[in-house]
Design brief:
The structure is a homodimer of 342-residue chains.
Chain A lengths: L2 E5 L3 H13 L3 E5 L2 H11 L3 E4 L8 H10 L8 E5 L4 H9 L4 E4 L4 H15 L9 H13 L2 E5 L4 E3 L7 E7 L2 E6 L5 E7 L4 E2 L1 H6 L6 E4 L3 E7 H10 L1 H27 L2 H16 L7 E3 L3 H8 L3 H13 L3 E4 L2 E4 L2 H5 L4
Parallel strand pairs in A: 1-2, 1-3, 3-4, 4-5
Antiparallel strand pairs in A: 6-13, 7-12, 8-11, 8-13, 9-10, 9-12, 14-16, 15-16
Chain A binds a DNA duplex (30 and 30 nucleotides) through helix 12.
Keywords (chains A, B): DNA-binding, Phosphoprotein, Transcription, Transcription regulation, Two-component regulatory system
InterPro entries (chains A, B): CheY-like_superfamily, cNMP-bd_dom, cNMP-bd_dom_sf, HTH_CRP, RmlC-like_jellyroll, Sig_transdc_resp-reg_receiver, Tscrpt_reg_HTH_Crp-type_CS, WalR-like
Organism (chains A, B): Pedobacter albus
Amino acid sequence: MKKALIIEDSDDIRESTAEILDLAGYATFTAKNGKIGVDLAIKHTPDIILCDIMMPELDGYGVLYLLQKNPQTAGIPFIFMTAKAERSDMRKGMEMGADDYLTKPFDDVELFNAIESRLKKRHKPVGFKATAGDKETLFAELKAKGKPRSFGQKQIIYVEHDQPSYLYYVVKGQVKTYKRAKDGRELSSTLYHAGDFFGYQSLCNGTSYTDNAATLADVELLLIAKADFMDYLQSHQEISGAFMSMLSNNAQHKDEQLLRLAYFSVRKRVAETLVEVAHKFGDKQSDECTLRISRDDLAALVGTASETVSRMLADFKDEKLIEKNGNAIHIVSIEKLRNIKQ
Amino acid sequence: MKKALIIEDSDDIRESTAEILDLAGYATFTAKNGKIGVDLAIKHTPDIILCDIMMPELDGYGVLYLLQKNPQTAGIPFIFMTAKAERSDMRKGMEMGADDYLTKPFDDVELFNAIESRLKKRHKPVGFKATAGDKETLFAELKAKGKPRSFGQKQIIYVEHDQPSYLYYVVKGQVKTYKRAKDGRELSSTLYHAGDFFGYQSLCNGTSYTDNAATLADVELLLIAKADFMDYLQSHQEISGAFMSMLSNNAQHKDEQLLRLAYFSVRKRVAETLVEVAHKFGDKQSDECTLRISRDDLAALVGTASETVSRMLADFKDEKLIEKNGNAIHIVSIEKLRNIKQ
DNA sequence: TTAAAAAAGTGATATTAATCATTTTTTTTG
DNA sequence: CAAAAAAAATGATTAATATCACTTTTTTAA
C-alpha cells in the first residue's frame, strides 16, 4: 500500500484531499503545517508528498528545500497544490525542484492522475538485466568518457593497497587480476578480455585495491575516471543494475572456483582452467583453440605449481586432448577437455 | 558537457533556443519534428530533452510516449515547451510523465532555470557509502516490508536451481550458504549472522540460485519479497549503493578464501576459519569465544575432510590454543590462533 | 646466427592430507 | 537412566601433488 503525505493548513482541503486518497487506496498521513510535514516525511518516508505553499510555521518552499537536503527524502515525488496560480509562482515551484504543480481548485481526477503519473515515473519498469545488444548502447556513453591507454606485456596496471581512481574497460588483449601469498605464490581469480570492465569491485565499496592487475599480452584499455563512473551509477539506474549483475556473476564464479579448489583434482582443475581460458581468448564457435599463455600464469589460475601444470599438459598431450607447438597450447577439443572426469 | 535535445518545428524558436543553450555551454542537438527527435534521442541519449507539442509527423505527446517506452531514454528529463497554455493541456502533458511544462513565450532565464533544476534533480548528490549509523535507518524501511519466519536447526532455506523469491535478513542465529560437489562434499562459502542480508546475489543478476542455504542453529529470518527489494533498489539510490558495497565485499572475501584454499596448509586454514567463525558467533571485544559448530560444518567451511578437522583441533588443544568441553570448542586466544604460521 | 637467458619439462623424493576402518565420546530418545 | 544413534576422534594406509634438482627447449638479444 502506497503512503501519501498531505501538508496543508486549511482543515477543509486537507481532510477532503485525504479522504479522496484514502478511498483510492493510499495510506494517508496529514500535517497542518510545514514543520509537522517535514517531521512526518522523515518518519514515514511516504511514496508521494502533496504540499501547499502558503502555510504558517514553514511554507511549502521551505518544506521542499528541507526534504531535498535530506538524502532519505530527496527522492520522494513532491507535488505542490496551491492557490498561487501566477506564472511566476508556478515557475518558482518547479525551479525549486517540485515534480508537479497543481493549482487550486482541482478535481479528484486531476489530483489522482497527478499522483499516479509521478508514482509511475518513479518506479520505472526498467529492465534490470540488459541483453547483450542493449548493453552495447547502455555502456557506449560510459565508455565515451574513458581515455585510451596502451600497455605492453606483463605490465602492472594496479597493485594492492593502491587507491582506485579508474574504472577499466578492456578494448584489446587480456588482463589478469591476482593476489599474492606471503611466500610469493600467485593466485589469479579472474581473467578479463575485450569487452570486460574491471576494477569496479574496489570502486563499489570505496576501499583500496585488495588485488593486483597486470596485462598478459599487449593490451588497450579505456580508463574511466572514478568520478564519472560514480556519477553514472547514481544517475543511471540501468548502469548500476548492470554492475550489480556483474558483481553477482563474479561472486557466483568465485563460488565455483572455491568448490573446485577445495575438492577437485589438479587434473580436473587444469582442464577446466584451459576451457575457461579458451573461452576468453578464442573464437566462441569453434571447438578448437590455440592459447599462448605461460605455465606460470596458468599455474596461478589453477592454484598449483607450474611443474604440476607442465605434467598435466604432458598427460593431456599423450591423450591427444591438446597439441603443443612451441610454447603455444593447441586444444584439439574443448568439449572433450570439459568432460574430463575427476 | 551536458547534451540537450530540442524538438521543435518552428525554425525560429528552434534556432533561438539552441543558441541560448549553446551559449550556456550545452552541446545542442535539434530536430524539426517528433520522428527525427526520437531518433536523435536514442542515438545521443541527451541529458535533457525540450519538446514542442504541436508538430508534424509525430507530436510531442507521441515523442514522450515513445521515449518512455524505451528503457534507454525513459529516464531523461523531458520538458514540454508549448503555446498550449490551457490548464487541461498542461495537465495532460504532466500526466503523461513530463518533468516540466513551459508555456510560450518564455524568456532565457525561465528556460535555463527549468533545465538546470531538472538536471540537478536527476543528479542528486546522494552519498554512496552509508555509515554504520545511517545503515540502520536506511534498511529499517526495507526490513519493515519483511515477514518474520523461524527455522529450526539444520533446516534448508533454499537449494540450487530454486527460483529466488525473497531477500533474507538474519534476525537471530546463523545461516550458511554452500555448494555441493558431485560426490556430495560440501563447501560453505559464507556464514551469515544477525544483521546480515543474504540471497541478494541471485536476485541481483536474475538467475536461479547457484548455491544452497541452510540454518546452523535456531534461526529467525525476515523474508522480504523480491518485488519489494527490486522496487527499493530502483528507487533508493542509497540502498542499491549499499548492496553493491555488500556484493563487492563478498567478492573480496571470496578472493581471500581462494588464495587460502590454493596455497595455505590445512592447519592454517582451520585456524583462520575458527577465527572467522568466532567473529560471527561471538562477542567482538573478547579474545575468547566458545563455538558450538559441528565438525562437518567446520570441514565444509575449511574445504577439507571432517577427520582432518578433528586432527587439527586435537593439535590445537595440545598446544593450548583451544579447549574442548563436550563438542563445544572454546578458543583460549583468538589472537594466537590468528597468528599461526603456515 | 649464436650465445645467453628464460621458460618449460622431467625424475626422484618428501610431505600433506584424504580415505577407510575402528574406537571413543556425545547426544538423543524411549 | 539406559540403550541406540549420531558425532567425533584416532590409527593405519594410500594417493596426490609439492618441492628440489636437473635437463631440455624456447625465446631473447647481442
